[in-house]
Amino acid sequence: MMRCLEPELKLIQDSKEVTVLSLASRQFVEMPRTRIEGLLASFPKLMVPGQQHTTVETDTIRYLYQPIGEEMYAVLITTRQNNIVQDMETLHLMARAVSDICDVTDQQDVVLRGFDIILAFDEIITQGYRDNVDLAKLRMITEMESQEEKIQEIIENNKQREAKQELKRQAKMFDQQRREAAKRGMGESSMGGMGGMGSSGSILGGGRMGGSYEPLLSREPEPVRSFASASPTRSNTPSISANARGMRLGRKPKGADAMGAMQNEIDLTQSLMDNMSIVDSTAAPAASAASRATPTMPPMDMKGVHVQIEEHIVAVVNRDGGLEQMEVKGDLSLVISDPAYANVQVGVVTNNKHNAQVKTHPKVDKRRFNTDAVIALKDAASSFPLSQPIGVLKWRIVSTNEDDIPLTINCWPSLSATGTVDVNIEYELTHPKLELNGVVISIPLPPGAQPTVSDVDGVYEVDRAHSTLEWQIPTIDASNSNGSLDFSVPGTDAGLFFPVVVSFACEKPYYDIDVSGITGADNEAVDFSQNIALIPDQYAVI
Q1: Start-to-end C-alpha separation, the chain
Q2: Computed from CA positions of residues 149, 150, 154, 155, in that sequence, does the dihedral angle turn out positive or negative?
Q3: pLDDT tens digit sequence for 344-401
Q4: CA distance 439 to 457
Q5: Rounded to whole angstroms, how far apart are CA atoms 442 and 498?
Q6: d(CA 505, CA 439)
Q7: For residue 324, what is the enclosing H or E element?
Q8: Are strands 305-317 and 529-541 parallel, antiparallel or unpaired?
Q9: pTM of the model
């Protein structure tokens, strides 16, 4: 069995010829290239204009094809003994994968993303047989991110920045040594010229020769006033011919030439490092991803004690409403910038109705936290680190109960008799204490389809580049806890509208926790600032 992608089919009407251009293809059985080219060349000849079905057959070969763009087709070539129903499902999944990876309206984009398309095909078919994957799993596999890789990238970028700073420091040091050596050489030349004139009438006596800079680098720099006293003395000396060897005291020594070459090399390397902006730009996504996993440094306007509560939620629900996965990870961090508050005590109020697994920092008095709900150090004489975030409390919530989902999304696509798919999507906030801002619900669309929206709570936007309908709700809270969106698009596949992906911003925690107050070492109340963030790492209906 051989499967390949034949994305483009061009008809040249003037010469009544048909040309085939393969943008990306993949075969899963051993077959000569001439045989493959022959099969591809035969495909357009077998097509009959005006046919409603998308299959053509020969005595031994079956072609299944599906339009995915203007004059662009996805073609699946198999034997006639294969299960045509399964092959049609495979073809549909391949076409959706291609549309998801690249812009099918741009031939150049298909060529540039050809390697990604081939990798997606390898995840769909293994050794000629279909794997049990859908579009959601395929996206998860092809877009899977490695936390270890991100950490390694951050480490490498930090090493590069440190090397850059070290190089600048060394360049500055070499430049300073070069200036000191030049000044010392001027002083020695003046003094040496005077000594040379006074030694038995020979201008060679008392003068330093070319290699005099090597010991000078190890000496302590002389005061500047020594040069001021040397200048008048030098001006009173008799003029000497330019050919006199004694005047070499004022020339650049040989060590200075080597140092000048070294300085030029350092300047060139430094300029190259300064122009390495691509390193900083590529490191930005990894650094931003890491900043979501660790508490960020507070801005300058934060108070002497700052509390940061950050949670990350993962919620995956299947299209039937069953909860596939739900996990919430959170931490409470302290950032103390005032040394007077280095040993504070934080009182918290919690309501562990979600059966969260709570852990304190090893240096925090766990017994006091369990009895009095106070975060304090075990050793009263010790103190928290200054001007850096330190996590003092962590919690983790794992649930299989559908009622624990803070925002439920129901997507109901249904086929109509007119050849369209009617889609109804509803949301409901099940945790009224939360306030979700900037909510965007992204619904996939068939490639090139234009939805007809009949009813919407909020606003919507069609992203043609990614073939999605972006449903935007400014705020979802207790006063706006539910809403719906109704639209229809031409098509016959109700599974095209998954996965539905949700993104939002929330400044209230999912875990019921709040800071009741902070006191200092003298038990006086301390004024503090606070920041809370609930971040959806993955929130989808598959």
Answers
A1: 30
A2: negative
A3: 999 999 888 888 999 999 999 999 999 999 999 998 888 998 888 899 999 999 998 8
A4: 12
A5: 9
A6: 7
A7: strand 323-336
A8: parallel
A9: 0.48
